[in-house]
Every structure is written in C-alpha cells, then in structure tokens.
Amino acid sequence: MKILGIETSCDETAAAVVEDGSRIISNIVASQIDIHARYGGVVPEVAARQHLLTIIPVISQTMTEVSWQDINGIAVTFGPGLAGSLLVGVNVAKAIALAKKLPLIGVNHLEAHIYANWLDSSPPGEKDRVKFPCLCLVVSGGHSDLVLMKGHGQFEKLGRTRDDAAGEAFDKAARILGLGYPGGPAIEQASRSGTPCLPLPRAWLKESHDFSFSGLKTALWHLVHKGEISVADAAASFQLAVVDVLVIKTIEAARQLKVEQILLSGGVAANKMLTQHFLANSPVSVLIPPPHLCTDNAAMVAACGYYHLQAGKISGYDLDVVPSLSLG
Amino acid sequence: MESLKLNSHSPEQTQLLGSYLGELAQKADVFLLVGELGTGKTCLVQGIARGLDVREYAFSPSFVILREYHGRLPLYHIDFYRLDHIEEIADLGLEEYFYDDGVCVVEWAEKGLQVVPQDNLLITIHYIPASQTGRSICLKPQGERYYELIEQLKKEKELWP
Question: Which residues of chain B make contact with A234, given a CB cutoff of 8 A?
C-alpha cells in the first residue's frame, strides 16, 4: 500500500511516497531542489506564498517514478505549525484526494516525527522492530516533548518544554556565541575543538518530566559577557548541558514507566553527542532515525498516514488546520 | 505621555508584571517586546497568558513564529526572532491577527516595526549590569488606548518593591 505524504507546517515544502509505512519510494524536500533558479531571485524562507510556489513542483517530482493509480491515500500535516503554511498543504491534499478519489488522512506533525522510526528499517522489512510501550522524545526547533506511546495512535504526553525547545536553545546559543545558522550543527561543529569545562546549570525540574532551557541560555549569555572564554569550550559546555538533561530525564522516565524502548525523533535527534549518550546509558534499546529523516520531511507523514489508514482513521473534506495542535 | 519604568529582580516578578498586563488587556491590544536573548520576554508572555486566564503553558514560538492560546481573549504569541528580512514578515499575513479580537504579543518586534500597528505598548527589557536576575523594564505607550493602560498599571505599582 502506497501513501503520498505532504508536509508544509514550517519552513520545508515536502512530499514523499512510502510503501507499507516503511519503504521510501521517493522523498523530496524543497530545499533540495533549485527553487531560486526556477523562480528567479531570492524567495522568502518562511512564507505561505513560498509553499504555494513550491508545492506542485515538489509533488510532481515526488510522483515521477510512481503512478497515481498505485497511490492508496493522501496524508497531510494539519498541525501544529503556521496556519497559512499548513493551509497550503491541507488544501492541495484535499484537491488531490477529491480529484483522484483517494482517502484524505490528516496527520499530527509531532506524531509524524515519531513515525520516522518506522522508515527504511535495517535490515529491510523489519517491520515490527518497534516494541510497545515505548517512550518517545521529540526534540526539534519548536518542540521538546516526552510522550508515552502504548500502541499505534495511542499517546500520552508526559512532559514538554516550559520555555525554549531544545533545537531553539541550540540556535539561540549559537547566536550568543556568534556561530552560524542553523545553530544545532554549528554548536556541534564548534564543540569538537572544545572541552565542556565551563559551569552551566541544568534545570532538572525533579517533580515533573518537563524540560526548561531558558535558564541555561541566560547563564551562557552571562558567561560570554563576563569575560574571555573560548567559544569552543562554551559550545561544548552548552551542548553537554542540553544533552545531559534530555538523556538523564528521558532514561529516568523510561525506568519509571518500564518501557520496552526509547524512540528519538526531531531535528535535534541528529546531534551525535545526544545519540551517543542515549546509546551508552539507556537500559532499553534506542531507535534513532537517520539525520535526514530527523528533520522535517514528508516520508514520516506518509508512514504515519499508513497506520492511520490501517486503523480506518480517515479525515473528511472539512479537515481544517490546527496551528496549536499537541500530541497526547 | 511618559514611559513607565520598573525593575524586576526575578523571573517571578517579570511574570507578575505580565499577569497584570494580561488582566488589563482588551481585544486588539498589541504589546511589542524588545530585549536581548535571555532577558525574559517569553517569561513576561507567560505572565500575560496567566492574566488572560489561558490554561495552557505558553512557551517560546521562535521556530513556529506564532502560537495561539485561548483564555478570556485569544492570545496570539508572535516571534520575529528567526526573520531577518522585512519582506518575510510582511509575507506572513499577520494583519488578520493584529486587527482580530485577540491580544497580540510580539517578541523581537524591532525587526518588524513597519508591519505592526502604530498604536501599541512598546516594552523594552534590559539586563541590569552585574546582576544575574535583575532586569530593567520600560513600558512606552504609543496611542490613547495605551496611555490609559499605563495609568491603570500604575495603580498596581505598589505591588512592586
């Protein structure tokens, strides 16, 4: 069964075709194609208009190797995200579903991130490698959620960030340190030549599974403005502080809840130190999608849509965007 | 009309100011926030959310640019942090939020002063040198509605040490 996934919730315009919720047939993210050459001039990075310009070429490119007759459903992100951006994807999905007489499947972007763990499993075809109940850490620019997943479509939110998301913390730290954008890879790169020797606080919030990174960001600001420090050491110290909190709190929750597995997802899951610390310390196995499936893409939307369709969860043509949608 | 200047000594005090603003807020109010990373802009918005009886926890919208919360009035929490060109901000179609029936709070507002309503409350937050948690906060009313708001807020000032 093949699902066409569409994703326009934030910066990326993406489409993908995934078979049986696992095998990626095609997977296109707009930044991979030469938009500037195609439309001429600089195109605003964050804009519904940008999605509008890009969505059809992206879908066409996704479908070059696939026949429409082989598609069994259209999955689309309907939240959370920016309303105008989400609307582009949802309306295109509706139009295609209507024209091709295919089921329309509205997908939660955060749930989709988790389903990146079902994609392109190795060894190939190992469909049941995810064991329930599992604990999902979704860490991206906009979110840091800890979610208990008891089965397909069964989520219970345990914790979330109270201020900055982990990816956002990396980005803001990079700005404080005068490193480039995006901040995650910039901090990771700078950390390689530094040692985590500077004292930075960790917000443990012992009473809950929530996260907080704004105090850490402010502490870094003070450290940088107090005097001479090595940017590499500051980057390494900051990275370790974020990784410590994410790893220790998640593993603590995994022990408490006696889960079978930990699933990482979201752009921050591409951070090598984070994945190494998880693999070294977790009492249960840890699944981590490859980096290009951690960041926003439509393959994860298609994978998630497949399981919705299997469960008979189909959306009506009145599907609306929900900008502040949460999970569990 | 003079600006109102206050010092906050803790995140809790910044939130308290926010909650008064939230309680006094009316529909179509626009609060602009200007201040360096880590000065407590999101913290102030959390207070505003509380003052508006928003039950969810307001957190930073830097990546998604806008988060919507529902309290006594809708709260549109907007953040220009990631936007570096005025065209990007103009492209977002935020007018429908600014002139809607909710309250708009805009972080990193200085990046988009050309596209926000001219009548607003401009809130600037600075670090107080040599203090970890101290912040100086300046509230500058721009337009009749906000002169009135500042007058009301002054009555609450005794709650500030």
Answer: none
